[in-house]
Amino acid sequence: MASKGPRSKLDHETRARRQKALEAPKEPQRPKAHWDHVLEEMVWLSKDFESERKWKLAQAKKVAIRASKGMLDQATRGEKRVKEEEQRLRKVAVNISKDVKKFWTKIEKLASHLG
């Protein structure tokens, strides 16, 4: 049996030659006509439209995110105000309950001395 090393190298070389033979021959150089410039402009313009569309979508996404954050901020501001008011009322209630407890402890002391 023959080794596969040299045979595979020959196969590769013949494949490369066949591939080269199948490639379309390049057109000879010619001066640019008006239509060539029009085609170049069309390619450039299509890329420009595509990039501008991507940019506009990105800007729209940024605006939408900022708007939604603003709406959330307004909603959370209202909730925050309600929570702060509840905390303030609780502090007032705690202070009142402490004062009431102090009053009744003083009354108990007075009653224990009198009675």
TrEMBL record:
<dbReference type="GO" id="GO:0004386">
    <property type="term" value="F:helicase activity"/>
</dbReference>
<keyword id="KW-0347">Helicase</keyword>
<dbReference type="GO" id="GO:0003677">
    <property type="term" value="F:DNA binding"/>
</dbReference>
<dbReference type="InterPro" id="IPR014012">
    <property type="entry name" value="HSA_dom"/>
</dbReference>
<protein>
    <recommendedName>
        <fullName>HSA domain-containing protein</fullName>
    </recommendedName>
</protein>
<dbReference type="Pfam" id="PF07529">
    <property type="entry name" value="HSA"/>
</dbReference>
<dbReference type="InterPro" id="IPR050520">
    <property type="entry name" value="INO80/SWR1_helicase"/>
</dbReference>
<feature type="compositionally biased region" description="Basic and acidic residues">
    <location>
        <begin position="8"/>
        <end position="33"/>
    </location>
</feature>
<keyword id="KW-0067">ATP-binding</keyword>
<feature type="region of interest" description="Disordered">
    <location>
        <begin position="1"/>
        <end position="33"/>
    </location>
</feature>
<dbReference type="GO" id="GO:0006338">
    <property type="term" value="P:chromatin remodeling"/>
</dbReference>
<dbReference type="GO" id="GO:0016887">
    <property type="term" value="F:ATP hydrolysis activity"/>
</dbReference>
<dbReference type="GO" id="GO:0005524">
    <property type="term" value="F:ATP binding"/>
</dbReference>
<keyword id="KW-0547">Nucleotide-binding</keyword>
<dbReference type="GO" id="GO:0042393">
    <property type="term" value="F:histone binding"/>
</dbReference>
<keyword id="KW-0378">Hydrolase</keyword>
<dbReference type="GO" id="GO:0000812">
    <property type="term" value="C:Swr1 complex"/>
</dbReference>
<feature type="domain" description="HSA">
    <location>
        <begin position="22"/>
        <end position="94"/>
    </location>
</feature>
